[in-house]
Structure prediction request, 93 residues.
Amino acid sequence: MKLSKEERKRIIDEPGMKWGEWARFVLLKYWYIFFSFLIDIGIPIQYLENYEFLGTRFAYYQLIISLLIEPILIYAEIRIYKLLFPTVKDTVS
Prediction:
């Protein structure tokens, strides 16, 4: 596929985002999702790892409470994600 002179000039004049902008606007989304996933998994796992060590009902109750808090935490993460990275549908309202 050959580009015309006008298309080449347009591509050279408007190369797109610089790497810093790309890191802020594109890569940051994936890092936010990754770290949110680590937090969501890490909270219940820390109680599962310590359950044999503690071996009490208190550790069991901590696990139950952490699992009950997870939906609230996930809801907050989704709201923060939508606040940080709005889509066109969110901004046109």
